[in-house]
């Protein structure tokens, strides 16, 4: 060993314990050891006399003298005399244990004395050693507990013991109060170098420190000659050697304080120098933000809030928009909740995230669906309030964000024309913003807006234009949550139209985006699941379709609820209960009445299509006729149901006219395949076998291209065999099996109940008159005439009394007014 060994480390590293153990082992050999504890009151001359007397008495044996608390040896002259005495003696070794600065190393260097310096970093326990020491103290740690302990206290022995002894054996959370108090009261006061303490405190504000950040923070403490980072490495290396800083894992050089050390340093700094601490928080926030570090947004927001950097908080919101809600609720609320009135007045763009932060904070913990609904409700309301009461905003970006919120609010209320007009206005405003603000070109606000504009167009019935905008939103941010929602919406739109190849392609893109931690995962996951459900229904896969539709990712409560209802209807027609689904559709119409009264978009048409198909499936052709009319004047979305209606009531000629006239103008591949199949069946019933075979081949080609098998259920079993024979088509074994195991929703023919004008009048009157005499008086005819008319009416309704007649007429939709 070297003649002089200096063990210099802050309290808590266990240097006294380690040296005492080492000295005890030396005493078991042929070495004389002595221990001298220095105090501030101890006279330096007395220390020297003690050392020299011990050296004189060693009787030729090696002597090791331990000077404990050597920081109290403050006399340079005494230190010089001691060094010369060590250098002049053979087999004399001095170990000086010091909590802080000591004055032995300088004279040792001056006299050329071989000296070893051991610092805190070398005394600190490594991970495996932490488990060994804990076991020696009676604490068995798992690897996960060890890692958490090291993160809390680093390799400091005494704080480690304090944490373990204070933590009950049954508690998985470590008790840190005793260790925290020790760091504050017994460690930090021993950092005698004020410059080192100030630097440590400033660096402790950041969770992780690298050279660029240290250079920016310590610009007042280091040379300002363009070598900030180079000079910043000097104090970092010094703190690392002391054991205060630990090298963080990763490729780039970075350092971290143990959590309790950092907490003690930072809290002491913020109490002693609040203004300077806030200024340093602002520096940290802007360095993190400018570096665009991965996963650094939460840290930048946290430091900006602590530094009261309202301009940066506003800028981060305008650049990140909804993507910021991917942060944990605690991080987002900590940044934007309870902002001072002065901040909201000086930066009105903070009002929207402040309102959302309140919504996030009020959402029950662990209920992401409630959080999503609550936050969206607040966001939409902010936009609608802005439309009703426009206020001055400080920036164009803030106005655009409020207008985007208004688009969502208008769309949610079914006011699609107003929403589209607002979107066109936003598009013009965004062009202006990008020309004026560089950050706007990389802002997620643009992709978020494109997504909302595209969804609105799709829901308004402008499918192709809407998909083009959704593709643009995806291309702008293909790996973000906005990209995931765009891909899912495109997949759903294609799946609903029967463009299944495109739907599968976009589902692959959606699956490639990691969106599992997104705050509103259902906004993307719901449409994606619905697209999968549609594809499963098309291939008659009951298990996959049922699983996709009952998945908790979506509840049909978003703006795409009409698609969800339509998918549930298709499922009920093939595998479920049409009666129950018809009741559900009626309930949806009631609760969405205000929205449907706007008469805009595809919602009303999809509900009508659902109701018509369900009515046909249960044989209620009268009610279906009232909804569909003669068919040729029905909206395009209802044409397949209209053709099916006339096929069911025995009018194949009209069914053929409707289907043939509509097939090649149908807006979706699915409806085109269905109309061609209906036309083929109608032609077969009319004896037009060549036409039936040719039309069936056309339908078959379309079904093969899209993978849609449902049209094969339109013909009855015998009719399908005839059409296959006439067309020369052979179905694959898997298609044949799927068609054979799935029920045909509309196989039974039905008859219309047709009443004469007089019978309708009698039906209307019996609602108000319960005797034949009263009915005769109201109709101005004889009682016998009324009785004959009632007999005819009851026969057509297949009933025997007035009450039953009214019930059946109500069910068939024959009661008007």
Explain the overall architecture.
- The mean pLDDT is 87.
- This protein has 817 residues and is mainly alpha-helical.
- Helix 40 crosses helix 42 (783-797).
- 64% of the residues lie in helices and 4% in strands.
- Strands 2-3-4-1-5 form a 5-stranded parallel beta sheet, with helices on both faces. A 3-stranded antiparallel beta sheet has the order 6-8-7.
- It is elongated, with a radius of gyration of 41 Å.
What tags apply to this protein structure?
elongated; 3-stranded antiparallel beta sheet; single chain; 817 residues; mainly alpha
Unreliably modeled segments: none
Strand content: under 5%
Distance between the termini: 110 Å
Specify the helix fraction band: 55-70%
Overall 3D shape = elongated
Question: Tally the helices: what do you get?
Answer: 43
Q: Number of DSSP strands?
A: 8
Radius of gyration: 41 Å
Largest sheet: 5 strands, parallel
* Secondary-structure class: mainly alpha
Average of pLDDT: 87
Name the strands of the widest sheet in spatial order. Answer: 2-3-4-1-5
Write the layout of secondary structure elements.
Layout: E1 4-8, H1 15-27, E2 32-37, H2 44-57, E3 63-68, H3 76-88, E4 92-98, H4 105-110, E5 115-119, H5 120-123, H6 127-136, H7 143-153, H8 157-166, H9 177-187, H10 194-203, E6 209-210, H11 211-217, H12 228-242, E7 246-247, E8 254-256, H13 259-272, H14 274-291, H15 297-306, H16 310-320, H17 329-336, H18 341-346, H19 351-362, H20 368-388, H21 396-412, H22 416-436, H23 444-459, H24 463-476, H25 481-497, H26 500-511, H27 521-538, H28 542-550, H29 561-574, H30 578-591, H31 593-597, H32 603-617, H33 621-628, H34 639-648, H35 652-663, H36 669-685, H37 689-706, H38 717-727, H39 733-741, H40 757-765, H41 772-779, H42 783-797, H43 802-812
Parallel strand pairs: 1-4, 1-5, 2-3, 3-4
Antiparallel strand pairs: 6-8, 7-8
């Amino acid at each position: 060993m070297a003649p002089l060994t200096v063990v210099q480390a802050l309290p808590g590293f266990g240097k006294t314990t380690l040296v005492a153990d080492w000295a005890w082992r030396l005493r078991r050999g042929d070495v004389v050891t002595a221990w001298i504890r220095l105090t501030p009151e101890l006279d330096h001359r007395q220390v020297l006399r003690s050392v020299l007397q011990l050296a004189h008495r060693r009787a030729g044996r090696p002597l090791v003298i331990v000077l404990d608390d050597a920081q109290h040896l403050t006399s340079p002259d005494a230190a010089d005399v001691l060094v010369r005495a060590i250098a002049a003696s053979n087999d004399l070794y001095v170990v000086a244990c010091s909590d802080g600065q000591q004055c032995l190393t300088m004279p040792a260097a001056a006299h050329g004395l071989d000296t070893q310096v051991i610092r805190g970093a070398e005394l600190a326990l490594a991970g495996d050693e932490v488990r060994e020491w804990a076991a020696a103290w009676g604490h068995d740690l798992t690897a996960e507990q060890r890692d958490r302990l090291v993160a809390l206290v680093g390799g400091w022995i005494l704080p480690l013991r304090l944490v373990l002894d204070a933590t009950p054996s049954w508690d998985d959370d470590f008790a840190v109060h005793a260790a925290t108090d020790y760091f504050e009261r017994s460690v930090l006061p021993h950092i005698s170098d004020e410059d080192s303490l100030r630097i440590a405190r400033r660096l402790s504000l950041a969770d992780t420190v690298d050279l660029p950040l240290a250079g920016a923070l310590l610009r007042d403490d280091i040379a300002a000659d363009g070598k900030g980072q180079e000079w910043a490495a000097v104090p970092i290396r010094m703190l690392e050697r002391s054991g205060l800083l630990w090298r963080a894992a990763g490729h780039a050089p970075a350092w971290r304080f143990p959590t309790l050390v950092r907490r003690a340093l930072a809290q002491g700094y913020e109490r002693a120098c609040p203004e300077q601490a806030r200024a340093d928080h602002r520096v940290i926030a802007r360095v993190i933000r400018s570096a665009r570090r991965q996963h650094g947004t939460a840290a930048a927001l946290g430091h900006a809030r602590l530094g009261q950097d309202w301009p940066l908080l506003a800028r981060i919101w305008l650049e990140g928009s909804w993507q910021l809600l991917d942060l944990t609720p605690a991080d987002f609320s900590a940044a934007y909740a309870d902002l001072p009135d002065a901040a909201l007045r000086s930066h009105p763009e903070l009002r929207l995230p402040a309102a959302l932060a309140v919504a996030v904070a009020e959402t029950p913990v662990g209920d992401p669906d409630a959080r999503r609904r609550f936050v969206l409700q607040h966001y939409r309301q902010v936009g609608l309030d802005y439309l009703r009461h426009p206020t001055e905003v400080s920036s164009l970006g803030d106005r655009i964000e409020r207008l985007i919120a208004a688009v969502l609010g208008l769309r949610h209320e079914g006011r699609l024309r107003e929403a589209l007009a607002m979107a066109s206005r936003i598009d013009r405003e965004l062009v202006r913003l990008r020309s004026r603000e560089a950050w706007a070109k990389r802002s997620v606000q643009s992709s978020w807006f494109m997504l909302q504009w595209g969804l609105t167009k799709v829901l308004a019935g402008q499918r192709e234009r809407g998909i083009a905008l959704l593709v643009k939103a995806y291309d702008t941010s293909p790996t973000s949550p906005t990209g995931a929602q765009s891909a899912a919406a495109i997949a759903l739109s294609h799946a609903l139209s029967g463009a299944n190849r495109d739907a599968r392609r976009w589902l692959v893109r959606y699956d490639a985006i990691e969106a599992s931690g997104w705050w509103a995962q259902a906004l993307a996951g719901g449409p994606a699941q619905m697209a999968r459900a549609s594809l499963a229904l098309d291939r008659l896969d009951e298990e996959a379709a049922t699983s996709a539709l009952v998945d908790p990712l979506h509840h049909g409560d978003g703006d795409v609820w009409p698609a969800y209802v339509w998918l549930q209807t298709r499922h009920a027609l093939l595998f479920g209960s049409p009666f129950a689904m018809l009741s559900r559709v009626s309930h949806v119409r009631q609760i969405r009445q205000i929205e449907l009264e706007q008469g805009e978009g595809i919602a009303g048409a999809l509900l009508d299509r659902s109701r018509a198909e369900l009515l046909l499936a249960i044989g209620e052709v009268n009610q279906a006729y009232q909804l569909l009319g003669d068919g040729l004047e029905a909206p395009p979305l209802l044409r397949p149901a209209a053709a099916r209606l006339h096929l069911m009531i025995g009018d194949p000629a009209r069914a053929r006219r409707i289907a043939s006239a509509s097939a090649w103008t149908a807006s979706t591949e699915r409806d085109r395949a269905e109309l061609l199949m209906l036309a083929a069946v109608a032609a077969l019933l009319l004896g037009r076998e060549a036409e039936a075979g040719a039309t069936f081949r056309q339908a078959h080609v379309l079904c093969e291209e899209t993978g849609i098998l449902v049209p094969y259920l339109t013909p009855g079993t015998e009719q399908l065999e005839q059409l296959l024979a006439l067309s020369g088509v052979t179905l694959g074994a898997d298609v044949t099996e799927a068609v054979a195991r799935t029920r045909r929703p509309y196989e039974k023919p039905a008859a219309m109940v047709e009443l004469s004008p007089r019978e309708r009048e009698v039906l209307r009157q019996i609602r108000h008159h319960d005797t034949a005499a009263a009915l005769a008086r109201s109709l101005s005819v004889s009682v016998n005439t009324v009785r004959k008319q009632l007999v005819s009416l009851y026969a057509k309704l297949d009933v025997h009394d007035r009450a039953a007649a009214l019930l059946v007429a109500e069910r068939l939709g024959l009661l008007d007014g």
